[in-house]
Amino acid sequence: MNTQACPMPGAFYRQSEKKLYQVRCLAIDAESGESLVICQALFGDFRLEAYRESRFAELFQPTEVPCAETSACTCDTPGSVAETEASAGEQGEVEAAAEEPCEAKAEKRQPIPEPAPEERDRLFLHFLELQSPHERRIFLEEERDNLSVRDIARIATSLELEDSGEPEDQLRNAFAALRLQERYEKERGHRHV
């Protein structure tokens, strides 16, 4: 397998048009010595799956995750040097915008701040670990003010929501999707009783 096709930890891949996965790490089968790709489904139950590297190349296509700040999403590995530099550049733009005189616009939204690099993925990963739509919705309500633009875009993608542009719109759509999932699970539970 050539180095261009080698899956990178943190990179996103699609198995079909709707199924999004993120490579978590590369591994070696202890018995056969074969290279394995460990990836996480970003839909359904968010399970971890292992594929032989050759099979992974046949089934998956690399993709970019749609998000508001594309420069923050183009890095191969979360927390990489390039990502930190991109975040620093974005922070400079936010600070420069804050120094400009304010226009009298009632609907002007405040930019959502980016967290420190060591905290960058903590909230998103915690969201993925939660089991039920109810737990996820409560978490989003509690952490709403602490979520970065990148967190919101990744959460929307993991819920298979279309890119609606503004982070507040994506968050509103995430709440609606989670409420719908809650209602579905509640109704399904009543049918099986």
Brief synopsis:
The protein is α+β, with helices and mostly antiparallel strands.
Description:
The longest helix is centred in the last third of the chain and has 25 residues, at 167-191. The chain has helices at 53-59, 70-73, 81-99, 122-129, 133-143, 149-158, 167-191; strands spanning 12-14, 20-28, 35-41, 48-52, 61-63. Strands 4-3-2-1-5 form a five-stranded antiparallel beta sheet, covered by helices on one side. The radius of gyration is 19 Å and the shape is globular. α5 runs antiparallel to α7 and α6 (149-158) runs parallel beside α7. It is α+β, with helices and mostly antiparallel strands. It is 44% helix and 14% strand. Mean pLDDT is 74; it is low at 68-91 and 93-107.
Any key phrases for this structure?
alpha+beta; 193 residues; 7 helices; five-stranded antiparallel beta sheet; 5 strands; globular
Spatially, the strands of the biggest sheet line up as 4-3-2-1-5
Principal-axis shape equals globular
Share in helix: 40-55%
- Average of the residue pLDDT scores: 74
Number of E-state strands: 5
Blueprint (SSEs and pairs):
Elements: E1 12-14, E2 20-28, E3 35-41, E4 48-52, H1 53-59, E5 61-63, H2 70-73, H3 81-99, H4 122-129, H5 133-143, H6 149-158, H7 167-191
Antiparallel strand pairs: 1-2, 1-5, 2-3, 3-4
Helix pairs in contact: 4-6, 5-7, 6-7
